[in-house]
Amino acid sequence: MTGTMTAAVPRTLQAAVELRGVSRTYGSGTAAVRAVDRVDVGFPRGTWTAVMGPSGSGKSTLLHCAAGLERVDSGQVLLGGTDITSAGDADLTALRRDRIGFVFQSFNLIGSLTAEQNVALPLRLAGRRPAKAEVRAVLAAVGLGDRTRHRPRELSGGQQQRVAIARAMVTRPEVLFADEPTGALDSTAARTVLDQLRAMVDSGQTIVMVTHDPAAAARADAALFLRDGRLVDRLVHPTARAVADRLVALEG
């Protein structure tokens, strides 16, 4: 089923994250590049949204702005209705630690730590002493209950990505952002990771995922399409074929 060209969430619905007129420019003068250009979009609670578009369309920048990893030049970013646009560095650090989870394509695990220790790290950085049972329960939830003492080099790519997801889950964030979470995985590992993300959404989690893969986007509830930093289209209940057709049209 195809949605309308606008991707804004109606104001009557509570968005987990909302961007209002957000722009982000790199460089200055004739070298300036507007990576995100006056984007209005909301991501409803308990949904999974895929963000797509040609290379250089602003996908990752949009994700980073929404997650508070980059500051916007103009507009507003709201998390659960709270304006975080002008939050200071300390507040943003606490925000990313307590209310936001982020999964990167490159996993970003610490090689000297076990899976259990990697997952516990965000809690320790927050000044908590995590219970082993709590950490192991999260690893078990991603199918790695028998890999708690393994270090990253002892795990496959798919297993490492699941550790990264468990690390993002352990703080119970309001929103999980994922930047190409299956981009470095083979098809079997990618399917396992996508199954886990789907299970998280079905249990009430909100996920915003950048991907270039139509099959991955087809697992989401909606797909948004960017071109030249602008939001140009939206599909509800996307299929891989419909997503692929839209990407071809955008790149053409």
Structure, described:
The structure is a single chain. The strands form 2 sheets. The chain has a 6-stranded mixed sheet, with helices on both faces. The protein has a 4-stranded antiparallel sheet with strand order 2-1-4-5, covered by helices on one side. The chain is 33% helix and 26% strand. Strand 9 and strand 10 form a beta hairpin. Residues 1-12 have low confidence and may be disordered. The protein is α/β, with parallel strands linked by helices. Keywords: ATP-binding, Nucleotide-binding, Transport. Residues 17-251 form the ABC transporter domain.
Write a concise synopsis of the structure shown:
This protein has helices at 59-66, 89-98, 115-125, 132-141, 157-169, 187-202, 214-217, 240-251, and strands spanning 15-26, 33-44, 48-52, 74-79, 82-83, 100-104, 175-179, 206-210, 222-227, 230-236. The chain is α/β, with parallel strands linked by helices and 252 residues long.
List the helices and strands and how they pair.
Layout: E1 15-26, E2 33-44, E3 48-52, H1 59-66, E4 74-79, E5 82-83, H2 89-98, E6 100-104, H3 115-125, H4 132-141, H5 157-169, E7 175-179, H6 187-202, E8 206-210, H7 214-217, E9 222-227, E10 230-236, H8 240-251
Parallel strand pairs: 3-8, 3-9, 6-7, 7-8
Antiparallel strand pairs: 1-2, 1-4, 4-5, 9-10
